[in-house]
Design goal:
The chain has about 220 residues and is α/β, with parallel strands linked by helices. The protein contains 7 helices and 8 strands; from the N terminus they run E-H-E-H-E-H-E-H-E-E-H-E-H-E-H.
Length: about 220
Amino acid sequence: MNFIKLAPSILSADFTRLGEQIAESERHGADWIHVDVMDGRFVPNITMGPLIVQAARRVTSLPLDVHLMIVEPERHLEAFAKAGATAISVHYEVSPNLHRTLQAIRDLGCKAGVALNPHTPAQVMVEILDMVDEIVVMTVNPGFGGQTFLASTMPKIARLKAMIRETHRSIDLIVDGGINPDTAMTVVQAGADVLVAGSAIFNEDFTIEQGIQRLKSALE
């Protein structure tokens, strides 16, 4: 099995100790840090902006994977890039000029990604695969942490993996939503390269170290 990357989602972190928890995640084996940006328009919730990315960059050397769950993402790309984002993903569902937006992300020196809601078919990626560095498959409806994994998204993960292989390019297939020790191996077997996990890592019932170790053990 290829090396699978873990990306703790700080949406589930304790924001009174955010810097400490990001550093702890890195210390105990996280590969990326995932930043969920929500605007209260594309999704019901409102979360964080460039200032949080800037703060995270000060405490970790890990890649910062910024997931924009917002309308008009093109208006905010530069701010997130300047704040320290390594990669920026925008949603297919809100990007009418997707080629232009992806090129703008790359021009800012970041990796470019496209996120797909559970109902959006894999086929929409055909015309833009040459422009992306990562694809984020949402396995819950975006907007809140701690939701239940949607098993109906599994065939889409497999289809996207097959499409990526045909390009002979290095494109990270990221799965985001409901990832825990019970679902981790299933999505990896379907083709996931990166697992985004929130409450399975940041949880009052166990430590960050325990959360990461449980996920890694589930993949062995």
